[in-house]
Design brief:
- The complex is a heterodimer of chains A (about 525) and B (about 475).
- Chain A has about 525 residues and is mainly alpha-helical.
- Chain A has a domain at about 280-505.
- Helix content of chain A is about 70%, strand content about 5%.
- In chain A, strands 1-2 form a two-stranded antiparallel ribbon.
- In chain A, α2 (about 30-50) runs parallel beside α5.
- The longest helix of chain A is centred in the C-terminal third of the chain and has 32 residues, at about 335-365.
- Chain A starts with 5 loop residues before the first helix and ends with a helix.
- The relative contact order of chain A is 0.10.
- In chain B, α5 (about 105-120) packs antiparallel against α6, α6 (about 125-145) runs antiparallel to α7 and α10 runs parallel beside α12.
- The two termini of chain B are about 30 Å apart.
- Chain B has two domains: about 1-215 and about 225-260; about 260-485, no CATH class.
- Chain B has a two-stranded antiparallel sheet.
- Chain B has helices at about 5-10, 10-25, 35-55, 70-95, 105-120, 125-145, 150-180, 195-215, 220-230, 230-255, 260-285, 290-315, 325-350, 365-370, 370-385, 390-405, 410-435, 450-470, 475-485; strands at about 60, 65-70.
- In chain B, β1 (about 60) and β2 (about 65-70) form a beta hairpin.
- Chain B is an all-alpha fold and about 475 residues long.
- The chains are: A mainly alpha (about 525), B mainly alpha (about 475).
- The interface of A and B includes residues 160 and 168 of A.
Chain lengths: ~525, ~475
């Protein structure tokens, strides 16, 4: 025990407090909403407590908690936090609170269940980010599926059941293979210590010290077992086909959490598991992964460009933006790694806000078709202003959050592979095209449809949500060092861990393009 | 040979089960009071199960080595005993609803349980055969217990005809093995040459006979029809009890007879893959919940066979390596029995009078009509699917671990693929319960009440599912101990 139970509290508070929701009458919607908002806000405040507790410039895990859970095989309840997971946890709790607020008036049936599912989802996601035991990680990863599945399947739009089932099957297909990979690792570890281990730092230590030696093929299989699960979640092209369906059919809160946090579980997994555990395989796979990422960036942007459906447009923009993150990770440069982590956070805010705005439009008109809108700036100038701000932050305007991430990724990637960076840069241009063009079609011009003339502008509740989002977007754009200096050490250590292991297999060759100098970091 | 007190005490569970079975049949002419009969049935199964502890303490061989009361058989006695206890506990409301006589029903369940007990502790093949026949013949009658229902009669007929074939195979297998080894006592078979063709043939025939009982592909064709037609409490019993007992015997035979050859490894490998795919692909297109669960139990037999393949693969080199694989089988059987029992009990109760509401469409809107029932059934389905925090997850996890531990990566991957196929149909049922509305008000089944005993059984199985999903060690420690002594 390490004295502090803060991480456990942050994980399980929503579940424990969510039980209180069960005691409210099912038709007492107002109090259910109030209680849910209180719980999620308190949870957000709990997660903020983590910031001062995390030491800046320290790479290792902090606030660790460890307890025995299962003896055979030895599975520990091992939690820990570093700079990378810190902000992802805060992003999760923040977006959950925002989602509760955003669902205030748009969820009318089975309200109680809705908020319980949302809180359970929060438990799963926060658990994923804080687990340091492979088994525990897998457990939260799987548990999180069920609430998301219900959120899409019960409260979604027309084709919700199809989308929900597709979402679950895709994710499960990946994660079951990951389970096989986890067990494989555990078996390898049991040849070193009796009973083996599922503990991430322990296994990582074994791999790095050479206690466990993997053949090239073995390492590649293991890498793929993990990577495919994460790639599906991200989603990396060509595993992305579940995403547009899931997003379009999910209720607004579901989309916000899905885009804001769930996709990051994939990229987080790559940083936390794929790179430090299987560095050689990661290096060998990097050109392929980067190519897929670039394809995803360009393809996602091009498809977004031609979407007649506003929500699908935002969904495809996620494919494009997450492509940047994967590219930043697999460039193996400290700058691009930092950019990737930053972009994960920035995308959570920008795209989360975009989904919120699209949801607000949907609440008013019950359609996502761009052609149904037009000239909305006249009846709702405030919403239009917020939308523009958020769109600009998403497309990477300097001073706003999207810029920092994309710039760092492109800069870092350029140092290692200028051509990857060049191709990826087209995505930045394309994102400006699809966002501004869609903005123009929705908000500018004459009001063409009579119904749109009388639409109400943003309500007080909506304004508060949007103000919070835009302020954070601006702050992340200006005050980016607040974030980067907290996760710089962690992202550097990921690369260090890769490098330390790298020389062992250097003789194996096959990596001409990644010379040792390139791995030495600024 | 005159049996001594030790011999008698080691068959105490079977004696009690049979004794109460006979008692119930004798009681029936004298009392029409269902509650009295139910009371004796519950008492009988409960006492018999409790007697297992005496029988297994200190345990040992009985009747000149015909049976062996070691921790392994204690484990299986407890398992089938608890299954029978829960089936009997939940059966009375069903029997009353369907207007069926209860005394014979309970007696048959008790006899079947005694047969399973013999099967689990048999150290001699003909004794095992007697146990198999005891449980099978009772099962045939139980399958057709709803005499006025066509489906039930069909179910009994099919089960009887095909089952007779299977037992004939089993018997012929015993004959061949006797021909090779000159004995039917399992412990004396240790020294036999494993490459003997006759031995392989004999074992193969036994495998067919038992494979029929546990529904392995390609001997699984009867399963959906029989499971669908049989009264649902009986289906619950079928899917949990006889399966566990037959797997117990299979484990015992393949752990003692020198069978750790590539031949058996590949046989189990192929059977596992066939069974998994047959079950899961078949389940995809089912619209009847009982049939769906029947196919799912075929698939689960396939998962258990994956661990068997690991056992036979490992038993060749170091003995210690096989222990986790045995443990995986035993653990899986417990979780599986628990969950299937719960699921079928729920289906039985929701089926309504005459078991009319078994279609998928009858479950539409259940999430709102009966939220607790839907939540509990979802829990069982998620456990069958193998989601964390349920017992089914650890069951699957240990099998994965056994497979990967024996370097059967491809088998593990195939099992993973099957788990995903399985996810589709379990989730489909959840979709129907929570996300679809009933097509019309008339088509909606009435809200079903849950009598106390049924609620109790559901609570035990549901809590067990969660409890073992959080603390699998409670069983596993016991299992690791009991399987080591089986060798």
């Amino acid at each position: 025990m390490h004295g502090s139970y803060l991480l456990s509290i942050v994980i399980f508070f929503p579940a424990a407090a969510g039980l209180a929701l069960l005691f409210l009458r099912a038709d007492d919607h107002l109090w259910i909403r109030r209680l849910a908002l209180t719980i999620s806000t308190v949870e957000f405040l709990f997660s903020l407590l983590l910031i001062p507790k995390v030491q800046v410039g320290v790479a290792g895990y902090q606030l660790e908690e460890s307890a025995k859970w299962i003896n055979v095989p030895p599975i520990n309840y091992h939690l820990g936090l570093d700079g990378i997971s810190l902000f992802l946890v805060i992003l999760t709790t923040f977006l959950t609170a925002v989602s509760v607020l955003a669902s205030w008036n748009s969820i009318h049936h089975r309200v109680k269940e809705f908020f319980i599912m949302l809180l359970m989802l929060e438990v799963g996601v926060v658990g994923v980010f804080l687990s340091l035991d492979l088994f525990l990680f897998f457990l939260f990863w799987e548990v999180m599926l069920i609430p998301m599945y219900f959120l899409i399947g019960i409260w979604g739009h027309e084709r919700r059941i199809y989308a929900a089932v597709k979402f679950v099957l895709y994710t499960m297909a990946g994660s079951i293979l990951m389970l096989v990979g986890i067990i494989w690792l555990h078996n390898l570890s049991s040849s070193i210590i009796p009973g083996g281990s599922f503990d991430l730092p322990v296994i990582q230590g074994m791999l790095q010290s050479g206690a466990i030696r993997l053949t090239g093929l073995e390492e590649m299989y293991l890498f793929l077992a993990f990577f495919v699960a994460f790639a599906i979640k991200v989603p990396l092209f060509p595993f992305h086909t579940w995403l547009p369906d899931a997003h379009v059919e999910a209720p607004t809160a579901g989309s916000v959490i899905l885009a804001g946090v769930l996709l990051k579980m994939g990229t987080y997994g790559m940083i936390r598991f794929c790179l430090p555990l299987f560095p050689n395989a990661a290096h060998r796979a990097a050109p392929v992964v980067a190519t897929l990422a670039v394809i995803g960036i360009v393809y996602g942007a091009l498809v977004a460009l031609v979407q007649p459906n506003l929500k699908k447009l935002v969904a495809y923009s996620s494919v494009s933006h997450l492509g940047f993150v994967v590219l930043g990770i697999f460039a193996f440069e400290n700058i691009s790694m930092q950019g990737a982590v930053f972009q994960m956070l920035a995308h959570g805010i920008s795209t989360g806000a975009l989904f919120l705005l699209v949801g607000m439009l949907y609440d008013r008109r019950h359609t996502f078709e761009i052609s149904e809108y037009g000239g909305l700036a006249t009846p709702m100038p405030k919403l239009a202003a917020f939308f523009l701000f958020v769109a600009l932050s998403s497309l990477g305007l300097p001073m706003l959050n999207g810029f920092v991430g994309e710039f760092l990724i492109l800069l870092g990637t350029y140092q290692a592979h200028w051509n990857w960076s060049a191709w990826a840069a087209t995505g930045v241009i394309l994102s400006a095209c699809y966002l501004l063009w869609s903005y123009q079609r929705v908000f500018f011009g004459e009001v063409t449809i009579e119904k749109n003339r009388t639409l109400p502008d943003a309500s007080a509740r909506e304004k508060w949500i949007l103000v919070a989002m835009t302020v954070i977007a601006l702050w992340m754009g200006i005050g980016s060092p607040f974030f980067t200096r907290r996760f710089a050490a962690s992202s550097q250590s990921v690369l260090d861990q890769m490098q330390r292991q790298f020389p062992q297999e250097a003789a194996a060759g096959a990596r001409k393009q990644i010379s040792a100098e390139r791995l030495r970091l600024p | 040979m005159i049996p001594g007190p030790d011999d008698l005490i080691r068959v105490l569970p079977e004696t009690i089960w049979c004794g109460f079975g006979v008692l119930l049949m004798l009681l029936q002419p004298f009392t029409r009071n269902r509650q009295v009969l139910t009371f004796f049935a519950i008492l009988g199964t409960g006492l018999g199960t409790a007697a297992t502890v005496f029988a297994g303490h200190p345990g040992g061989a009985a009747f000149g080595g015909l049976i062996e009361m070691d921790p392994f058989s204690v484990f299986f006695h407890l398992l089938v005993g608890v299954v029978a206890f829960l089936v009997v506990l939940a059966a009375d409301p069903y029997l009353e609803r369907e207007r069926l006589e209860s005394a014979e029903f309970y007696a048959l369940v008790l006899f079947a349980t005694a047969g399973m007990g013999v099967l689990a502790s048999a150290q001699e093949l003909l004794t095992a055969f007697i146990g198999l026949e005891m449980s099978s013949i009772s099962s045939y009658v139980l399958a057709g217990y709803r005499r006025d229902s066509l489906k039930s009669s069909e179910s009994a007929m099919k089960y009887f005809l095909l089952g007779s074939f299977a037992t004939a195979f089993f018997l012929y297998g015993i004959a061949l093995i006797y021909g090779v080894t000159g004995t039917t006592l399992l412990p004396r078979m240790g020294g036999v040459d494993p490459s003997s063709t006759l031995l392989k043939l004999g074992l193969a025939l036994i495998l067919i006979g038992l494979g029929f009982k546990v529904a392995l592909a390609p001997f699984q064709i009867w399963t959906p029809d029989v499971y669908e037609g049989a009264p649902t409490p009986v289906t619950a019993l079928f899917s949990a009890g006889p399966k566990a007992a037959a797997f117990a015997l299979l484990l015992r035979i393949f752990a003692t007879v020198p069978a750790a050859t590539h031949f058996w490894f590949w046989a189990f490998w192929v059977l596992a893959v066939l069974t998994m795919f047959a079950g899961n692909l078949g389940a995809l297109v089912q619209t009847n919940v009982k049939r769906l669960l029947a196919y799912s139990s075929i698939a689960h037999a396939g998962y258990i066979l994956v661990a068997f393949a690991a056992v036979t693969y490992l038993a060749g080199d170091a003995d210690s390596g096989a222990a986790p694989a045995y443990a995986a089988v035993l653990f899986y059987l417990v979780t599986y029995a628990l969950v299937k029992l719960g699921a079928f009990t729920m289906v039985s109760q929701l089926g309504g009078a005459g078991e009319k509401h078994l279609g998928l469409e009858d479950y539409a809107g259940l999430g709102q009509r009966q939220p607790v029932a839907a939540a509990v059934l979802s829990l069982f389905l998620l456990s069958l699917l193998g989601l964390p925090v349920t017992a089914g997850f650890f069951g699957k996890f240990y099998i994965f671990k056994a497979a990967v531990g024996s370097h059967l990566i491809w088998l593990a991957v195939l099992m993973a693929i099957n788990s995903v196929i399985g996810a589709y149909y379990y989730i489909r049922l959840i979709v129907v319960m929570y996300m679809r509305e009933p097509s019309s008000a008339e088509a909606t089944p009435a809200i079903v009440g849950f009598p106390l005993t049924v609620t109790l059984v559901l609570a035990i199985t549901a809590l067990g599912t969660v409890y073992f999903g959080l603390f699998p060690n409670r069983i596993l420690d016991f299992v690791l101990q009991s399987n080591l002594l089986a060798r």
